[in-house]
């Protein structure tokens, strides 16, 4: 892909020559002279640890980018994996609140 073809906010298919083993998709956040900063959007589950270590971002050379296609068998990156659970009241807490 050429620099002129890459736009901020675009979703692209990419591959990394070092960090990530399988191809992945990312959203272009910033464009440099010969590369682009991508926020990793979907990836192969095999690369989950590497993606986490990279904080879901990577700089990729334009030659390793191409227009996005539908992702197959991939995991969507989540920047916020917070679980919310209801906490059951205890009997002691009920007694304290009645005082």
From TrEMBL:
Q: Which domain of life is it from?
A: Bacteria
Supply the name of the protein: DUF2187 domain-containing protein
The record lists the organism as Lactobacillus helveticus (Lactobacillus suntoryeus)
Please name the taxonomic classification of the source: Bacteria, Bacillati, Bacillota, Bacilli, Lactobacillales
